[in-house]
Amino acid sequence: MSVGGFPGRPVRPGDPVRPASRNTTSLLVDNIGELVTNDGRGGDPLGVRRDAAVLIEDGQVAWVGPARYAPAADRRIDAGGAAVLPGFVDSHAHLVFAGDRAAEFAARMAGEPYTGGGIRTTVGATRAASDDDLRATVRRLRAEMLRQGTTTVEIKSGYGLSVADEARSLRIAAEFSEDTTFLGAHVVPAEYADRPDDYVGLVCGPMLAAAAPHARWIDVFCERGAFDVDHARAILACGQAVGLGVRVHANQLGPGPGVQLAVELGAASVDHCTHLSDADVDALASHRIGCMCPDGEHTTTVATLLPGAEFSTRSPYPDARRLLDAGVTVALATDCNPGSSYTSSMPFCVALAVREMRMTPAEAVWAATAGGAAALRRTDVGRLTPGARADLMILDAPTHLHLAYRPGVPLIRQVLHNGVPR
Ligand code: NIG
Ligand code: FE
Q1: In the Cβ-directed half-sphere of 180, how many Cα atoms lie within 13 Å?
Q2: Residue 374 C-alpha to ligand 2 middle, in angstroms?
Q3: For residue 376, which phi and psi values (nearest 5 degrees)?
């Protein structure tokens, strides 16, 4: 799309500039030293442009091009030669919970292993919390994320584990995100410990019925100690039958059948992927029909890696290089939750992925933006191209490389969400 000038080519000096329509305020982000578009132009997945500008209208990107051809706009933000990136797409977060598990973290750092057993502690605290307390926690974490460049976040339930508590978790999540995920099958709650089949029946029946109106996705923790592959398959199939998209937590604590199940069901994403067999990598790679078809359909199962979890559980990191070299689409996300990964910071995850998982800085930035969008099967976020949502961050740095090169430094100078400075 070109704005002002003539359709089909960039605006040039001297072109008549189309006045902003009466109901529209246009905003130009100008003087961008390095613009990451993720448009894949010239074979560069990041689609980097130098000395660029972005025009925003109606909350969307209206034009991208050389700063010297930038059209006039009602308002202007001068990026001062800094880098501008699409907002992060955090495609895996558990934000609806109460309490924290700092003592459990301290015990782990003193040598205790992570088993997922603490999930039930958070379930107890979450059930006892008021709606307003849960809402305040989601709001606080969502605000933290926005300050660190995250403009899209998926939010899971999974700490309620009763019909009423899962439904209210998703109702609250839906106040903050379009991408809400029903994770009633996080673990079997204590009251069903000796009758897991009955719990699966509850999840597939009344719990799904109460949750589905507030959810876009269904997820299962398919792992030893949580749900076996038959239970996981049954639960995910019930979700698919009522129109929910599939995501799976798998192969976090050890090898297992979860990745293959995710591929078999055409899941949008399989998350963790820490312990993979060659067959798992082959399954992810061979079902990769293409990251995005011309009609906008994603057909691949994305491998979403969550390095915050390995950091906070002192576990070996997944081998991103092996997945990337096999041609698998990789996303990065925080897994923000009070147990295994209490970070809301995508820049931290990018730095970990580069330092510990053999990703290049460019691969990590792509995975944290376009990769997250692919994992959520969204084409409107994770890129800065005409028609995309105007979600972007201006760094206090000249290049995206600094996100990994300067770990722990608050490099996000300004965030625009839906074209609005936050
Ligand atoms: O993704 N693995 C399962 N669920 C979360 C951990 C939840 C918790 O420990 O509270 C995860 O790491
Ligand atoms: Fe998780």
Answers
A1: 23
A2: 17
A3: -100, 5
Q: Beta 180-185 vs 155-156: how paired, if at all?
A: parallel
Task: Tell me which of 90, 94, 108 to substitute to probe ligand 1's pocket, judged by most ligand atoms within 8 Å of the beta carbon.
Answer: 94
Q: Whose CA is nearest to atom 9 of ligand 1?
A: 339
* Residue that the structure tokens 């915050």 belong to: 308
The answer, yes or no, to whether any atom of ligand 1 lies below 6 A from the CB of 149, is no
Burial 342-379 (b: 16+ CB within 10 A, else e): bbbbbbbbbbbbbeebebebbbbbbbbbbbbbbbbbbb
Cα three-residue angle 168-195-100, rounded to 5 degrees: 45
φ, ψ of residue 144 in degrees (nearest 5): -55, -45
The superfamily CATH assigns to domain 88-375 is Metal-dependent hydrolases (3.20.20.140)
- In b/e form, how buried is each residue of 71-83, taking b as 16+ CB within 10 angstroms? bebeeebebeebb
User: Among all chains, which residue has been given the structure tokens 């490099």?
Assistant: 411
Summarize the confidence of residues 307-317 as an average pLDDT: 98
Write down the pTM of the prediction.
Answer: 0.93
SS3 145: helix
Question: For ligand 1, is residue 280 a contact (CB within 6 Å)?
Answer: no
- CA pair distance 6, 152, nearest whole angstrom: 33
Residue 37 is encoded by which pair of tokens?
A: 């578009």
Ligand 1 center to 283 CA (angstroms) = 24
What's the pLDDT tens digit per position in 375-386?
999 999 999 999
Domain 26-86+384-421 maps to which CATH number in 3.40.50.20, 3.60.20.10, 2.30.40.10, 3.40.50.720?
Answer: 2.30.40.10
Percentage of the chain beyond pLDDT 90 is 90
For residue 175, the CA-to-ligand 1 centroid distance in Å is: 22
Q: Whose CA is nearest to atom 3 of ligand 1?
A: 221
Distance, in Å, from the CA atom of 84 to the CA atom of 86, rounded to the nearest integer, reads 7
pLDDT at 299: 62
Distance separating the N- and C-terminal Cα atoms of the chain: 26
Query: How far, in Å, from the CA of 156 to the mean position of ligand 2?
Result: 8
Least confident of 46-55, 110-119, 383-392, 396-405: 110-119
Phi, psi of 397 (to 5 degrees): -165, 155
Residue bearing the CA closest to ligand 1, atom 1 = 335
